[in-house]
Structures are given as structure tokens and as C-alpha cells.
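Help! Submission page says 'invalid entity' but I think these are all valid:
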Amino acid sequence: MHTRREVMKRSAAVASMLAAAGMLPQLAQAQAAGYSAAAFEAKTVADVIKALGAAAPAESPDISVNGPDIAENGAVVPLGAAVTAAGVKRVLLMIEKNPYTLAAMFEPGDSVEPSISTRVKMGQSSQVYAVAVMNDGRVLYAHKEIKVTLGGCGG
Amino acid sequence: MADPMRIRAQSKDGKTVVRVLMAHEMETGQRKDSAGKVIPAWFIQTVDFKLNGASVMKAQWGPAVAKNPFVQFTIKGGKPGDKVSITWVDNHGDTRTDEATVS
């Protein structure tokens, strides 16, 4: 016979297993208007691009990703993207080995230079990608490896 | 209600550099508390950047953006006295708008 306590424990364990396996849609709570939840739940660079309905990305010298080579603290990693080509629709920052690949998406209007920097969290050393979706449908990317000494996720 | 954002907007040579520091926990939903329970995700999802009331840039964020998010970008144009206003919405539906004057 199971006590109530055991049952509670077991269901909690199952729930956390599901969560670990990515079965529970953790991000699918209240969504802000216009939020591309599918893209933010994607787990690979290719899936993010697909979720946004963009074309296959091509490596390009017109975009650069700015960040440190070694980040001591994964909880705060300065990361930026700069696009020199005109006609940028979206700028994406992606971190390959994070639980969810897409970190941030910016949609700069015509009056903003497509050169944006922010700070992100990184769980472990990983390739980071800066991707630009252009108005004419081209998708450009650049990548760089950032080594993380102390992870910013989990704990 | 969340703490105010710190916004600095400086105009130089016809361009305006905007730096924003938002006060937000940006909890990922990956971490566990001392009892082993997952701390639910709580993060900013959308941000709208405006110059004199007109949107110049929008952003969508996942939980991987660092705690107390920082953003720097450059607006072509803008002059001292213009108003930069920034609004964020998080996944709890909370929102906050702050405004700063270009210097």
C-alpha cells in the first residue's frame, strides 16, 4: 500500500522527468502579443530558421558576431551582432548548446543601425551564431566559439 | 511592479546611441531551488523601442537573455531633446514603460 507521501513523491519525479525530456511546454505559458514561441522553443539552429520560415542561411562577411573568446561567467556574456549590408529585417542571436537555441531576436526598423549588443546566458562553451534575415529573403550568418568557464544555466 | 529601467541616449554626429539596462529577474525555467523544484520561467518576451512615439525597433527574447538585460543600439538621426521610450512585456503579462530624453 502506498502512502500519500510516496504517491506525491513519485508524481513529482515523473513530472520532473517529463520536464527534463522537454515534454512539458515550459515556455508555453502566457505569451506576449506577437511572440514567436515556436522559434524560442526550437533546439537547433536549423529548427529556429525553420520556425521563422526563413530560407537556408549562408555564411557571409556582411555580418559579424561580437563576443569574448573566453567568458568567465556564463550568466553574463556580452554578445552582439553587426550587419553591414542594407535591408535587414531581423537579427537573431543563437547559442548552439543552450537548452533553447534562440536567445534573442531583434527587428530593427529602417532608422536603426543593424548593430546591436546585449548580454546573454550560456550554459556551456558553445558556438554562437549571429543570423540576419534580409528583406529580400536572404539569410546570412556568422559564427564564433565562446568558451565558458562557469555555466549560467542550471545550478 | 518592476524597478525602472535605466536609459541613456546620447546624440553625436547625427546618430543617437541608446543604452538600456532593464531590471528583470530573467528566470530561465531550467534552475531548481534548494528543495529540487524547478523555478518557473519568468522573462521578458517582447520589447518595443520608440523614438518620439514611433517604433524604431522591436525585439523578442527568450530566457537566455541575461538577468537585468542590457541592450545597446544606434538610431540614425535623433537630436537632443527627443524622447526615447521603451516598453517590455514579460511572460506573466507584466509590462513597464520608461522614457528618457536624448542628450
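Support: the input was valid. A stray whitespace character was the problem, and the output above is from the cleaned input. The longest strand of chain B covers residues 44-51.
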